[in-house]
Amino acid sequence: MDKNFLVIENISKSFGENKVLENINLNISKSEFFGLLGSSGSGKTTLLRILGGFEKPDTGRVILDGVDITNLEPFNRPLNYMFQSYALFPHLNVFNNLAFGIKENFTSKEIEIKVKDIAELLSIKDLLNRKTKQLSGGEQQRVALGRCLIKKPKLLLLDEPLAALDKKLRSKTQLELTALQKKLQITFVFVTHDQEEAMSLSDRMAIMKNGLILECSTPEEIYENPKSLYTANFIGIANIIEIYQKDKNYYSDDLDINFYLSRDLKNTKTNILLRPEKIKIQSINNSKIYPFNSFSGEVLEKSYLGSFTRYEIKINNKIISVLDQNFNSNSNYNFPIGEKVMCSWEKESIKILED
Amino acid sequence: MKNKFFEKYFVFTPYFWLVLFFFIPLAIIFKISISVSEWGMPPYQDIFLFDNGFKINTTFENYIYIFSDFYYIGSFINSLILALTSTFFCLLIGFPLAFYIATSNIRLRNILLVLVVIPFWSSFLLRVYAWKIILQNNGILNVILINLGITSEPLQLLYNQYAVIMGIVYTYLPLMILPLYGYLNKFNLNLIEASKDLGLNRFRTFFKVIFPLSIPGIIAGSLLVFIPVVGEFIIPEMLGGSDRLYYGKILWEEFFVNRNWPGASALAFTGIIILVLPIIIFQIIYSRWSEKNEI
Q1: Which residue, A49, B93, B127, B287, has most beta carbons within 10 Å?
Q2: What CATH number corresponds to the domain at position B112?
Q3: CA–CA gap between residue A219 and residue A202 (Å, rounded)
């Protein structure tokens, strides 16, 4: 596998005074599904537009499959871009939208075969004579995707590919998109602000903030072992607790409890991350109090989520989120609001956020 | 009750306007055009005579007269050619301008729009007169050309059909730019990027995406320029020479110099029919076509 299929080298970009991207470096492998995740203003879309050729970077290079494409016009790049708005041509029907990019290179017979093939692949064969306005959001998305894929690009860029779809359709399309990408083995780079979308689609993903890449790794690695406080908070639910060394132990003022860690700290004071599903919640009566890694608190709020119940536990003035899997259909396993409960966790579940 | 009445008939206001200021004057023109001319005030006879019993006193002489003399038809053709040429040049200059305005950022856009509209704030006559001063033999343009050594003698820039076209393009350009801007403003710029992304260069993107999607704006702007230019009188009068006669001037002369009101009315009415009928037919065909193609 070519690890340097797409190389983004020292890319910086400013709009006037506003620095949008600062010295971005990324290496993306061939056939990888790569996500750029960030909130609005993080520079993720600008980076994607630079790859597409719609913006020129102030510094740096973009190398695709060994070729420097930094100064190529969009129409000379061997890649395609799927717009968030889909940008289907309203004056053309679905067939002509799909055929738009291959009209000059093939005979009308070849075009017909190619369009039929791609329509088959995306199951939009019945829509070929429709106007784009007569299509639903999901159908428009398929046409936009098909219009790009028919060109057999080396790289497909997707700007918020699922943002315009409703929630149910989104999860269905997520699975289809992943399957399609694995089948076609085309390198996908997409942009999203939705962390769930990024986690479920990406092989690897980069977290962007204020024009910088904070972290770039697999979704599992970023969720379980985030390197920064920002990522820890940005991805999933996070309990962030400040601890410091006191005598030989680690101690939290907020929770007024001792922590037992799997390794020693480099600093005397740091933040730790405790994911809510790693915390075990028990009734206070039938469990003993440990000297470390546990506390007793009061259930402040709870929300039943089906497979999980989410509790907000109050201890001193701090609120800790806990996700408790509903193993048993017996409702006795649920704790009512106001009840005193015991929370505990393994020392391996504590992630030390040392920047 | 009063409010209800108002609500019910409010929709007829534009029709009322149309009847009062378009159909009634048109009917009067038509009436005069089929009257018999005579010396007097007004210079035509009534179409209904009651002196010796009721008698309808109409004639088609005036229509026969204007169609039998190529002087009238020729001037009308001249005007149509002038209108077509001017519309073409307005489109050629106006389209890129409108596109540039529509795609520039909001601050620049507002400044440019004001610049487009500003000429309307000064008198139309004054602006045409200014061109006369610029183009005349010892005018600023000739002075510059002579000083640059491009020509030794002043060029005859004024009083010909080219000066007329220039004056008309200058005057009517905003009428082309504004409706075009209105359409291009709504244009999804991602469509242009999508076209380029799919491999079409700028030139092909223009003809495959921008142009087909601007057709409604182009039609609106072109009609707005074409129709009034056919009847334009002042610009050919001030900037034109004797090389070409135009419809507007002939009409004026028939009315005010020859005092041939019935003849002039026949000419005016014929002009309207020749101009309006094709446009109505075109509009019907076009609206059916665009409905089918959902532009």
Answers
A1: A49
A2: 1.10.3720.10
A3: 7
